[in-house]
Amino acid sequence: MSAAKKYKPMDTSELHDTENIANCLKKSDSATTNPGRSAFAAQNMNSSSAAAAAAASTTNGERLPNFSKLGAHHGNDIRAASTTSNLLNRMGAIHNTKPGDVKKIVIKNFKAKPTLPDNYSEDTYIKLEEAVIAIQLSKPIKYSLEELYQAVVNMCSHKMDAQLYAKLKELTELHVKRNIKLKELTGGSMDKLILLEKINNWWLSFCQQMIMIRSIFLYMDRTYVLQNSSIHSIWDMGLDLFRIHFAQNNVVQKRTVDGLLTLIEKERQGSTVDRGLLKSLVRMLCDLQIYSSAFEEKFLDATNQLYKAESQRKMQELEVPEYLQHVSKRLVEENERLLHYLDSSTKHPLIYNVEKELLAEHLTTILQKGLDALLEDNRLNDLTLLYGLLSRVKNGTSELCGNFNGYIKKKGRTIVIDPEKDKSMVQDLLDFKDKMDVIVRNCFEHNEKFTNSLREAFEFFINQRANKPAELIAKYVDMKLRSGNKGTTDEELEKTLDKIMVLFRFIHGKDVFEAFYKKDLAKRLLVGKSASVDSEKSMLSKLKQECGGGFTSKLEGMFKDMELSRDINLAFRGHTLSNDRDVTNLDLTVSILTMGYWPTYPPTEVTMPPQFINPQQIFNKFYLEKHSGRKLQWQPTLGNCVLRAQFDAGSKELMVSLFQALVLLLFNDKPTLSYEEILAATSIEDGELRRTLQSLACGRARVISKTPKGRDIEDGDQFDFHNEFTNKLFRIKINQIQMKETNEEQKATEERVFQDRQYQIDAAIVRIMKMRKTLSHNLLITELFNQLTFPVKPADLKKRIESLIDRDYMERDKDNQNQYNYVA
Amino acid sequence: MADDGENSLDSRPNDDSKPEKMFTLKKWNAVAMWSWDVECDICAICRVQVMDSCLRCQAENKRDVLGRQDCVVVWGECNHSFHHCCMSLWVKQNNRCPLCQQEWSIQRMGK
Fold first, then answer.
1. Which has the least CB within 10 A, A132, A437, A584, A784?
2. Closest by alpha carbon to B82, among B58, B47, B111, B57?
3. CA A56 to CA A70: how far, in whole Å?
4. Closest Cα to residue A732, out of A699, A757, A755?
5. Under a CB-based contact definition with an 8 Å cutoff, are residues A331 and A354 in contact?
């Protein structure tokens, strides 16, 4: 009985209740050798407050008796006995030593139940009440905490826990009521801030008091409260009472909430406030679970009102970028507010409300007032901010996108529509596209919606002016691909071409582009002015990719012709060397072009001297032998020549057009010629001849002189060989005068495009009618618009339909004027 | 007149006594267009210009740069001309020229 010996005799607090014994057993189940220590450990595990832990450790000795009764009263109980191994061993020994002479150890209950002193409960009540009141008034307590704790344990052990709980509740309620009354009485007149501080202090001390009280009543909290699910723990009971009275008392609650709102508003206006106080009070509201009902709603209302007024004022005062800065600042502030003292559940409604008041309500105004300027001035940072803010509100990005689209259309139109700006149009378009691309990429997060919108807007405005943009783009490409475009590397050129292709994609009338491109390409190839064959080929493959092989097959044919011509010329040179001596003086190179691939050049007849005619005939013969069934049509407008000229100052080489050469060669026979003589000798077309003479007599290099002097060639003018001509260069290129011609050419090219289009329209109409047999006018027009790849006017379509009716491809229905029948 | 001048130049290219001509032609880069030497430039069978590939070839050889090389012109003894492709299909049905109903025989082919 070594363990039992240690136990003191039972004291008054001994338990009889079987339930309590079971409780003790549970606690001691884990203990084997030292129940006292394990009890302490168990107690320790259960205590959450330091005070309780202290009480347990000091009462170690006194707790022990609880276990003594285990051995004493329930020794016959195997379950009970087995809890202490010593006892078990002891009992085994007894059985073993005396097998025959059986001596039973009978353990009997005490005769008299231990009782409490009569006035114990009353005394303890008073003791505890005094202590609680002392705590509530923040006065020193008469009794030691240990004593109080033990008293609570004892009360609970003797089934007085319910009364004790009721008593405690009553005391707490009284205290709360008293305090509330106090606040109510003084609160009305008190400054809000002071009131808030008071309330805060009261709350904090209330919490502290409740912790203290709970520590004392911990035993009750752990036993009585846990067993009755219907009642609150001491802490919750305290909060509950606080809430009931705080919430009931409108004056105090309202003043508190108002105070909070005032503080927050002050902070929003820029003054510093005690965030700790705010945080503590908001926490209080949260703990009392009246945060959302009493505070949040009002807070959000106040927020809305404040920002509604503010946004209206600021929209008036500030420029859009500044306003955006302001909004972003506000959002940061509100987020900080959330972080520092507001409950996180407010985050969504608060931010939503701020965004709504500051942004959503003014969406249209912001965009209308500010977007264009931002885009115009390329203010990337502000645009990024704008996008960032607008993407937070509903419809923000789509509104932004719409306005962005509108701006591009408006701005793009000004670039495209003005004939005065034709010269820089393509470059402007490229720059504009670049700029918008950068904005979409950097500021609008590469949002697909914006990319598409950008594309759509470009396509829209570029086709606002028919044909001209296509023509100018073709011209721009020509300029880039022509030699003499120094300072750009192949890579740069490639990049430029890629950008051009982007613009090209927007163009509806791609045939216009093709016509002009082809004309320029022809010029580049024939004059040998192409900067790089690789770039030409690359451009061609781009076009092919974009529009398909049908679009480029003729252009490719042009390149092929140039290659074939090279071979033919080599063969021809070999041929002349072996056969004919006449041509060896003259270095003749012929570019053989396939009719149909190349632009059509107006046929002109000129009188050529035998110098030209002879080799030409030899070549003709040579070529037609090689390629039977063909005929050759020489193009005097396109060729160029090199002439050796003898001036007083020495000999020069002149690079001239065929026409210029024809004129100059006339001077070999007669040093002075009149305009009429030249006209008769060359039979060059009048306007062309005037331009040619102008280039020779009035240009930069004047190899002939004109009398009378003057810029324009008049009938009857005389021309002389200009013997005194000097120039520091040996090879001189005499430029043709082209000014007028380009205009005509341009007209001609456009004319041809329109002609081609008419055929395409005719073909489409017949195709559709052949399939449908009968069709109403409107349906036919709709189908045509779907099929045709270039822009057309309904009026033009009507004309084509009329023409087809005239030519008996189709007829109007006899009964219905609006219906057409296909005529097979 | 020009003819005479030309001859005199050619006959005395290295005659030093005569002063050199003011202008001498050194080089000529000429340009000429070729087309099939046909009376009617539309193939009566496919109604496409003979300079272009026939319809069939246009549809099939879209990506062939040298489509034309396969689609040459053919002349019959009657001097009518068609795409060779078109005609070779035609004669399978009817060995007569579609225009004049003469017996079809090839006079020459374009190359």
1. A584
2. B47
3. 20
4. A699
5. yes
Instruction: Say which CATH architecture domain A744-822 belongs to.
Output: Orthogonal Bundle (1.10)
Give residue-wise pLDDT tens across range A381-412: 888 988 988 888 888 888 889 999 999 999 99
- Tokens linked to A519: 């004309």
A569 near B CB under 8 A: no
**3-class DSSP string for A572-595:** HHHHHHHCCCHHHHCEEEEEEEEC
Give dist(CA A583, CA A588) in Å, integer: 8
Domain count, chain B: 1
Show the domain range for B48: 42-110
Name the token pair of A586: 């003259």
Taking contacts as CB-CB distances below 8 angstroms, the residues of chain A near B48 are none
State which fold the A639-741 domain adopts. Answer: Ribosomal Protein S5; domain 2 (3.30.230)
Is there a shared CATH topology between the A119-248 domain and the A639-741 domain? no
Asked if B66 reaches chain A (Cβ–Cβ under 8 Å), the answer is yes
The total of other beta-carbon atoms located within 10 Å of residue A778's CB is 10
The contacts found for A536-543 with CB under 8 angstroms, 24 or more apart, are A536/A481, A538/A494, A538/A497, A539/A477, A539/A481, A539/A497, A542/A497, A542/A498, A542/A501, A543/A501, A543/A504, A543/A517
Are A644 and B30 a contacting pair at CB < 8 A? no
Measured CA to CA, the distance from residue A448 to residue A268 in angstroms comes to 38
pTM: 0.68
At A42, list the tokens. Answer: 């168990």
Query: B-chain residues within 8 Å CB-CB of A641?
Result: 25-29
Strand order in the sheet with A774-776: A774-776, A819-822, A810-812
**Shortest CA distance to A67 belongs to which of A11, A146, A149?**
A11
Say yes or no for a CB contact (<8 Å) between A610 and B49.
no
Strands A640-647 and B23-36, how do they pair? antiparallel
Predicted complex ipTM: 0.78
